[in-house]
Amino acid sequence: MAQKLIQPLNNAGITASYKWGTKYESSYGFTHYGQDLVGLFQTDPDAVYAQGSGIVAFAGWDNVCGNVVGIIYDEAVNHFDGGSYKVVGRYFHMASIKVSQGQRVTKDTQIGVVGATGQYVDGKHLHVEMDKDINYPNYTPTLSGDSNILKAGYRGSSDTSIDPMRMMHCKESHPDYQYIKVMNGSDWVDPRDAQIPHI
């Protein structure tokens, strides 16, 4: 049975959207292939959790994106198109990592702490990517050249990345009590991004 992936931060503010607008590109010189989140008003606002059940594909220090973790999730629901499939979740810029390669995780497994490590970081946040290519989990369209852990682009001929919001659900019930909102005043955020299913 397909699972519904939940937020990696229990209380999340969205500061940049997936492939959204031209101002991000003009500021950094490249397309934003992920979702940027910050923690809000909770006991531990910077705790990053796995979004569901899966296996850690990689974890460590990347020379470009700082502390990174990649998780291959068991079959998961895409609430946008109604499909379900295995996906890779990639998490960048963390202050520290709390999992290791090959480890089995669930939504209750803390994988790291929100940080500002690596390049192209203006402040503390979590960059989240989703991708259908589970055979090459460390390949990301974010990079134009290979780093030590992350590799540039895709292994196939087309973009296999997915808008993270299409895979994400807000779990309002115990013990997660999740909340999500769009941070106002940012030209980098799609205002529809907080309209994810609540479960």
TrEMBL record:
Tell me one GO molecular function of this protein: metalloendopeptidase activity
Give all residue intervals belonging to the M23ase beta-sheet core domain: 32-133
Pfam assignment, any one: Peptidase_M23
CDD domains, per database record: M23_peptidase
Q: Which domain of life is it from?
A: Bacteria
- Family matches, as Gene3D superfamilies: Glucose Permease (Domain IIA)
Q: What name goes with this protein?
A: M23 family metallopeptidase
